[in-house]
Amino acid sequence: MLALLGSLTIAVAYSSGTRHDYTAYTNQWEIVLGGGNPWIGTDNAYGPLHNAMAWVYGLNHLLPKGLFALLHVATGAISSFGSLGINDTTSRLQKSCLFAFFVLSPYSLITVGVYANNDILPAAAMVLALMGVVAFNNRISSLASGSLLAIGVLSKFYPLIILPSLAFRQRKLDWALLSGFLATLLLGGSLAYWHWGHSALLPLLFASSRSSKDLSIFHFTSKVLGAQLDSFSLPLMVVAFAAVSWFLHSRNVNAVIGSIVTFAAVLSFYKVGHQQFFLFFFLVSPFAIRYLLSCSTIFTPKLASAFLLWIGFLNWYQLVFQLTCGMWEGPATTLRYWGALPFLALSAGLATTTMRSIAANNGRSRQHKKGWIPSLNCRP
To answer: Taking CA 85 as the corner, what is the angle to CA 283 and CA 93, rounded to the nearest 5 degrees?
Structure first.
């Protein structure tokens, strides 16, 4: 079944051709193959791994798109059917349903199969790094997880957000993971610097100078209210990261919850609210849901409902985006500017429900330590 689905997604990727951001990618890869610098005079906000895909593109102009689609299905399959590192209480049917619901969702298939957004590279790296830490939990897997996370950073920088959640667990620093991360990052960064010089740092500057987009609340305030608040994005991201990290650390939550909640909190305040940035949540959800259902009470019916509403909105939004040429046709043009408002409401509801569930579970854990109730915690 997985082989068939992999073949079908690659077929969709090839048949849909070059479109959306993939057009910009091909222009950047042409510059690389021509011996130029893909960060000079372009809108390239990506890392050196993205540029290295130029040599894959040189073999066939749709080959990177096909590989993105294959990586999407493979990562989703590992997330849905791979080992949890604990006793998995979910059935094969439940795993298959999770795979179909998240990996084969309209959002996922459009984002990767049709548009070929390169966010599949950091999203897959984040999911596989998290699974390596949680499911295997040994020195070799930590080293490999750190290396995988660095590979994600070399494509886009945002996997850095979950590094503390993976490297600092049970209030101890995982030196093997940190070593693998730094070694791979330094190697990739050195090669990029050797080939392109100081311009390898330009994506960081470009990302900070971009205007607000799509699902960011700053896009709504700018386009609808006429209030230019984009400059508040970075400070709020830092505050959100610090506050959520402190909250999670104080309750000693495991890496699964820590990485997901921290990434969601920071992304909520990023002014460039492109919907493809949320691909990580679709790929990690099958693993996270199986893990939490198998050893925790955190994933309550109320939390599940809030999460499914949030995921459902992203599915609907991406589908409308595809059917209306990027929301430039018909009534959807209004949604292009107002869409951030209902998404903010859904995100706030999900965040509140999640924090309450974590706090409640933490309280039950303290009772367990006093011998009152059975253990409800997963292994961190």
So the answer is: 55
**Contact (CB, 8 A) for 357 and 298:** yes
DSSP 273: E
Cα 379 to Cα 257: distance, rounded to the nearest angstrom: 11
- Flag the least confident range among 1-5, 32-36, 201-205, 364-368: 364-368
Phi-psi region of 22 (alpha: psi -120 to 50; beta: other; left: phi over 0): alpha
Nearest partner of 267 among 183, 136, 127, 159, judged by Cα: 159
Q: Determine the Cα–Cα distance for residues 380 and 363; give it in Å rounded to an integer.
A: 16
Of the CA atoms within 13 Å of residue 290, those in its CB half-sphere come to: 32
pLDDT for the residue 179 = 95
For residues 264-287, average pLDDT: 94
Please check whether residue 279 is in contact with residue 117, taking contact to mean a CB–CB distance below 8 angstroms: yes
In the predicted model, what is the mean pLDDT of residues 286-299? 90
pLDDT above 90 for 1? no
Structure tokens at 82: 């791979």
**Model pTM?**
0.91
Q: How far is CA 334 from CA 123, 220, 229, 280, 327, in A?
A: 30, 11, 20, 27, 8
Q: How far apart (Å, rounded) are the C-alpha atoms in residues 144 and 252?
A: 24
